[in-house]
Amino acid sequence: MTSPTFLAVCAAWLVAAQAAPIFFFGEDRDIRLSEGETKELADFPISKQARDDFHSMLGNVGSESFELPAFSVGDGKEDALAVEIGGAVVTLSGGRVSSETAFGQFPITGQQYYEADMRMFRITFSQPVAAFGFYGVDVGNVEGELVFTTLASNGAAAEIVVPHTRHSESGVAPSGGVMYFGFLDAEDPFVEVSFLNTAGANDVSLPRILLSPVRKVVNPRARSH
Question: How far is CA 26 from CA 49, 90, 221, in A?
Fold first, then answer.
């Protein structure tokens, strides 16, 4: 299976500070042992730095890792999965809780994750959020690009192509690398996010989700990585 694995998500509630949308990005390439075989990354410092820079603007975060005993493999397969984090309800549609690890995918923390079908996958929030970020493992192993879209409460949509390494750029299919992407928009908070691979059907996995119920961005200066 050639599916990106999303390992962490960070969001902040509607904030008072006003700032232009900015994003944070870091990527640690895979360790290729042979064609079709990769080694799990024990550390991913570039991705961690992007995450730390992003989180420094948000303050403390709450988290959900989809682990036992609260979640079991298969949860969410038949119906949308609703999770309460930081006093808000986060609803994931189009996937299930899984524990499988193969084809370049592996959990950064824990043993389980939420595996989503990118043809129908979305996350909705019970109140507007201003920031959203995630770890990704095994992204870019097909020809397409990963497109991240936010939907504001007024219906306005914002679309960003995540600048990860792509198959056509590297000459071989990236497999097992780690990346982090964080997006912050204090002026137009959003109530929904979705992911799409432009090459068509592909899976997304979320082993961990983090939310920050802050009322004010800690440091709303424009910067990106």
Answer: 7, 25, 19
**Residue 124, class by beta-carbon neighbours within 10 Å (0-12 exposed, 13-18 middle, 19+ buried)?**
middle
CA–CA distance, 64 with 109 (Å, rounded to integer): 11
Residue of 3, 45, 61, 8 whose CA lies nearest to 208: 8
And the tokens for 37? Answer: 């075989």
Residue-level pLDDT at 91: 92
Cα(38)–Cα(102) distance, integer angstroms: 10
Q: Report d(CA 155, CA 128) in Å as an integer.
A: 12
Helix, strand, coil: what percent of the chain each, to 5?
Answer: 5, 45, 50
Other residues' Cβ atoms within 10 Å of the Cβ of residue 189: 20
Rounded distance between C-alpha atoms, residue 132 and residue 25, angstroms: 12
- 2-56 residue pLDDT tens: 444 455 555 555 544 445 788 999 999 876 645 555 667 888 899 999 988 988 8
